[in-house]
Every structure is written in C-alpha cells, then in structure tokens.
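Following the same procedure, sequence and fold were stored together, as reproduced here:

>
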Amino acid sequence: MIGVRSSEQKGGVAWLLLAMLLLPAAATAAGDALLWGPYVTGTDETSAVVSWKTAGPTAGGVVAYADETTFQEEGYTAEVTDDVTTSLHHVALTDLTPGTVYHYAVNTDGATGPDCRFRTFGEGACTFVVYSDTRGQAPYFTPMERHKLVADRIAMEESLSFVLHCGDFVTFGHDLDEWNQFFASGRQMLSNTTLYPALGNHEGNRSVYYETFEVPEWYSFDCGRAHVAVLDSNDWAKGRLDEETVWLEDDLAGAEEQWTFAAFHHPVFSSNERHRGGDRTLREAWTPLFERYGVAGVFSGHVHAYERYEVNGTEYFVVPCGGEALYPLAEEKMAGYANSLEHTLAYLRVHVTAENVTAELVPVATLSEDSKEVVALHPPDAVFETVVMTPQRGGGEPAQTPLSPFSACAAFGLATLWLRKIW
C-alpha cells in the first residue's frame, strides 16, 4: 500500500433535498405497476439481464433499449419481448457493445416505464460500490427511512459499473413484503446500475434470493481489470467448506485480471463485541489463499460498523452500513487494525485502474448511538478515508506473520445503549 488519507467532512441537508428533487422520477404508469424494479443483474462486456416483478402473472412485457449515442439521436431502437407468463421476469439483452452506457425502459400492460440506464463492462478502468446490511429495524425505522438514504446517494455516483451487496438484504429471507421494501427503497440505484449479490445470514438460503438474482451460491465475475470472487460465508455452507475452498483456490489461480477481490458476508477480522475476532474458521481457510494469490481487497458486512484491517498485504473492508441499526466496536482490536467508523451509514467506492486501486469510504448519515435518529447528513463530497492499493499478484506461499488474537490499539468511543437485534 502506498498511501492512506483520512478525513471527515460534515454538512447540511440542503444538498440532499436538492439531489432528491433532481433524480429522475421513480416511476411512470408502468413503473407504478411494478412491485420490484426494474433492476439489472449479470452484466458483463456484451450482455445484461433486466428484471422486474408484477403483482400477478403477466406476459408480453417489452424491454426497449439503445446505446447512449443512439438514444440521444433516435430514442430506443431495439427491444426484447418476454413471452413467459410469470410475475418475476428476467429478460437478457445480448450482443451489446463493451464499455457502453445503455438506456432502457420496461413496457408492461400497455404502459411505458421510466428511462433507466446501465453500463456494460469494458476492458480498462472501472468503478464500483460495496455495501451491505440494508434491512430495517421495526418498529424504529424502515428501509425507506434508512436504506433509501444510502441507495439514493449511490444512484448519484457517475460512471458506476456495478454495486456489490455483501448480504442481509432483508430480515427474513422468505418474507416477500420485506423484499418489496428493499426494492422500493433502492429503486433509483437498482434501476440505473448492475447489482451483484452475496448471501447474508438473514437471507436464510431461501429460494427467493436465487430466483431474484439468478446467481449460484458462490461465483465470480470480471469487470475491466478486476476479478471478483463472491463466496457463501454462512453456517449452512460450512459443511461444504472444503468444496468451496477448493473452488476459491481454482478461481483465484485462474484469474487473469490484474486485480482480484473477494466478497462475502461474515468478516474474518472484527472487533465487534458480538463477533469478537471475526470468523476464525473462514480466516484459517481463506486468508492463506488471499495472501498466496495477491488478493487486493476483501469485502464483508454483518457487524454493523465500518472497519478496515491490513493483514499481510491484503485490505479487509467491513462495510455493513447500508441502513441497518448500527452498534459500537470493542476497544481492543485484532492485529492489523487500521481504521473504523461507528454509527454512520456509508458505502465504499472503489476505483480500479492499471496503476492502482483507490477505495474511499463515503459517509452518508450519522446516527444517534441507539440508531433511532439521523443526527447529521453528509455532503456528496464527504470522504472518511481513502486507501490506495498497488498490484501484488504473482503467487507464492502466504506470508507467515502470526495473527495475535487482539492487540491494544487506539479506538473510537463506545456507546452504552444497544438496540434489540434479531440474529
């Protein structure tokens, strides 16, 4: 790592109110008829999947689309019709041009939805966002009151290739009403970029997750110079940990991209009181592979406070700040502790180039210590810290630096009030 810069900026709320007014209208007649979406998944250099959900089974929905240049001159010039009678629709757009912004709209039941957009992956630099833990905390607040703050800010990001969600979309994975709230609160973001998901414990390994996002339990994808391995860190996968670890090593060994990353829900390093030390089983199984194959960054959630650790050349980011109730960290930190931020809704913005990777923690809102109130909103240019990473791929054995259980480090103050939580 060649440099770390930290700063915290605060501001008023006028910018946020103006930004919300300037965002595109969330829906027209067709949009109002959709329970979910539209949302985009599975994007690569030449294809993407546009999805939406209706209140009941329908058929004949149309996705009209065009690249940016064509759209500005002629409007939508291509379309794909979904002839399957279902309530959850997935329409693949193929033969797209790499590194290109596409406009699209969903037409269903004779009504046209809003103009939305996404970006196909290119070969060079890319920018993506990481966050997680977007569920509400009844009766104190809903996703529309908290997750929407973060999602609408992410929707304002320019040149975004994708959003990586590290799990806990909802409290109960089988509860469709909670999924309705997730999609409603994230509508502006989800309709205008690509989402790549990881399983959280609250998804419960339910079929809803797989049907919604059409991804396997663990998988990987490429974007420009970045390769991302998405893993299942949950207890139900521990019985097949050897299988998953073999897959991970094969995936990392075969990655041809300059930069590699990994994402999963449970952090392997943490100073959270309820998950002291992080997941030891996963740490012992996976961190040697991250070191051996030069993984630049590992992204997780789950513990509801931002933390960063730097261990044997890999940055470990814990970014569970997407709208859930937040809680404090312990004063004692594991070896490798670098920084943390409590009681703040936020997301991580990652920019990948040939020369380096820049990761910025973007604070959105500061919450009261009991998470019941929003006490401050941060301006769009606020950055808590910037971390710069340089290439380190090349193989070899992992470093043998011992990981002491905990070491005394400077820490932020502890809050005394804990919210009742569902685990």
About this structure: The longest helix spans residues 241-254.
